[in-house]
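Justification of computing resources. Each target in the renewal requires a structure prediction run like the one illustrated here; the chain below, 333 residues long, is used simply to show the kind of job we budget for.
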Amino acid sequence: MIRFCSNTLLRILIAPGIFLGVLFSQIVSESVPVHTYSIVAYDEETGELGVAVQSHWFSVGSLVPWAKAGVGAVATQSFVKVEYGPEGLLRMENGQSAQEALNGLISEDSGESVRQVAMIDVHGNVAAHTGSKCIYAAGHLIGKNYSVQANLMDKESVWPAMAKAFEGAEGDLAEKMMMALEAAEIEGGDIRGKQSAAMLIVSGDPTGVAWKDIVLDLRVDDHAEPLNELRRLIRIHRAYQHANKGDHLLEKDDIEKALIEYEKASEFYPENPELPYWAAITMASKGNLDKALPIFLDVFKREPRLRTLTPRLVNSGLLPNDKQMLKQILEVR
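Resulting C-alpha cells:
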C-alpha cells in the first residue's frame, strides 16, 4: 500500500505517476500505481478465460490479472484497487454479468476516476472502465469476447493496435493475447518503458479445484525485455505440457504416443536435456531400454551430470535394481 507522509516529495521524484496521489491522497492510500496495458479475453472454442499484461512496474502479475474458471477474468490497473479482482469474480460467480459486477464496484468506489478496470464473464460479456483522471494516454476498446485497455501510454494508438492484433491473430488464447501485448509495445507502449509482464489463463472445463483449473500462470517480475521473456516462458510451458502428456501416456503403456509427446516437448524446449532424460528413464523402467539408450546417449553428451544422477534413481524406485541394465545406460557412448 502507498502511504503519503513527510517524504511525499521524494516519492514523487522516485516514482513517476505517484504525483497524482498528492491530489488524491485518500484514494491513493488504498492503491498501488500500476500504469500499464492489458487484455482480458474469452475463447469461444475452448471456453478458456485469460488476462495478459505488461507494465513499467515491478511484479505486475501480482496485482493486475485475476481469473476463475467457469466465472470470468478481471484486469485492474492504473491506481490499482486490487479488490476489483476478487470481488468482481465473486459477483460474477453469484450470477452478475461482467457489466453488472463492474457497475456495482464502481458505484462503491470514491476513487473510480483514477481506476482502469476490465471484466469478462464466462459468457463472453465484456465491460470496461477508464476513469476520467487516468493519466494520458489512457483508454480502452471492447470487441467480441475481449477488451484491451491502457493508461500512461506513449500515444492513443496503443490500445487500438492491441485490438487489431488480437482479432487478426491465429493460435490458442495464449498466442492471441501475446500478439496483442507485442502490438502494444511496437506501437510505443508505456511511456516510461517496460519492466514486468504476466499472463493468466483458466480452463473452460472447470473442475472446481482452483489449481487444476489453471491452464497457464506465468509472471516476469523484473526484466529488461519482459515480453520477450514471457514469450520464452510460454514456449517452455508448452514443452512441459507435452512432457506431462507423455508421462500420462506411459502410465497407460502407450509408448508410441508417449514418444510423440516427448518429441514435441523437446522441439519446444530443445536447450534443456532434462526433458528427454526423464522420458528415457521412464522408458527404461518399463522395459523399453532399446528405445531409451539413444536418448541417453544424446542427453549425456549435452549434460554429463545426468549420467552421474542416474544410479541414484534406483533407491528412489525410478529405475529397477537391475545392474546389467544400469551398466548399459551408464556405458552408452
